[in-house]
Amino acid sequence: MDLVTRVTHAAEAALADRQYASFIDVLTGMGLLHNVQSWHNGRVQYLDETMQGGPEKLLKTIEIFQQWAARRGLRPEDLPPHASFIPRPPKYHTASQFPVLEQAFRQHFVSPQLPEKKLEKLRGLADATAPPTVFSIVKASKCSQCNQELWKGDLLTMQGNQPLCMACADLDHLVYLGAGDAALTRRATKYSSLWAVVVRFSRTRGRYERQGVLVQPEALEKAEEECLADADLRAARQERDAERRQFEDIELAARMTDRIRELYPGCPPAEARKIAAHTAARGSGRVGRSAAGRALDEHALELAVAAYVRHRHTRYDELLMGGKERAAARGEIREEMDTVLDRWRYSRKESDHAEASTDRR
């Protein structure tokens, strides 16, 4: 499949799913950008840390995407980077800060049918101001203003490059609410006119991880009262939502299995089901959960099948375990992988016919 077709398929899938398409959607649908959610959650600072493709390919992809949007009559919206939580919100999507690539990442192309309310929400997300970040420290420090000793587990925030204790930062009137209850946290932060995110650095994972929030005491009390009043209702709704999501996942996996069997008639049914179940797993971040995957885009499913074959039908994992670099390992198993994929592209009847013809010759 050529680059124009791949870009078009990814963009069309995103547009059909959300009534707008972004360059991030296109790269994700093409399998060139991974773990976008990690960037949204602050685990990855720049998108190009998980991006594939050289400058020439990316520039050509941008050009094709913009031409597609012009043909479809979509309206451009320039939106700055947004993340749900990042201790130091970035000004850029990419570490290189390459102007053309930065502009492409900011640009969304919006359908005229997108309701104005949804568009305003999209703009609001991009313009949202991140709450203050408070650090649960992992080693002793000292407040730069009052010289109070701060020990492991104490809270501090940064003003410029200077650490401040909660009293000097005027945050000591807030109370701590640990992570774990999404409804309570959502309501407490909603009612609190000032709140902060509490994070701690994980040495093992090499990133900041959210621990909870600091909110005003009266906001927490109001949130707790509301949560207690409708606990049974929320539990019933969560149960219904879980059942609905399970049904949707089963239905998606079934449709994906059928589509894989259409694209690869020689693929054993049991393996087609395994591929679909693996790539469509909710929350996995795999290609099956992308807009293109849910739309059963041919290229997205080809990527899923190729990944399955690479891990299950070649020596790829053994090579990685032996210390081989990823690119070198992929090159070494390319022939094995192509053999399996070529065999799967034909039905058993077609394959038998081809073998019989060869025998007669």
Summarize the helices and strands and which ones pair or pack:
Elements: H1 3-18, E1 20-22, H2 23-29, H3 36-40, H4 55-72, E2 75-78, H5 99-106, E3 107-110, H6 116-127, E4 133-136, E5 141-142, E6 149-150, E7 155-159, E8 162-165, E9 175-178, H7 182-191, E10 196-202, E11 207-215, H8 217-229, H9 231-263, H10 269-279, H11 291-294, H12 298-312, H13 316-321, H14 326-332, H15 334-344, H16 348-360
Parallel strand pairs: 4-10
Antiparallel strand pairs: 1-3, 2-3, 4-7, 5-6, 7-8, 9-11, 10-11
Could you write a compact summary of the structure shown?
This protein has 361 residues and is an alpha+beta fold.
- The total count of helices amounts to 16
Shape: globular
Kindly state the mean pLDDT as a whole number?
A: 83
Sheet/helix structural class:
alpha+beta
Describe the structure in your own words.
The protein is 52% helix and 13% strand. It has 361 residues and is an alpha+beta fold. It has three domains: 3-127, no CATH class; 133-229, no CATH class; 233-355, no CATH class. The strands form three sheets. The chain has a six-stranded mixed sheet. The longest helix has 33 residues, at 231-263. Residues 83-90 and 349-361 have low confidence and may be disordered.
List its salient traits.
361 residues; alpha+beta; 3 domains; six-stranded mixed beta sheet; 13% strand; disordered C terminus
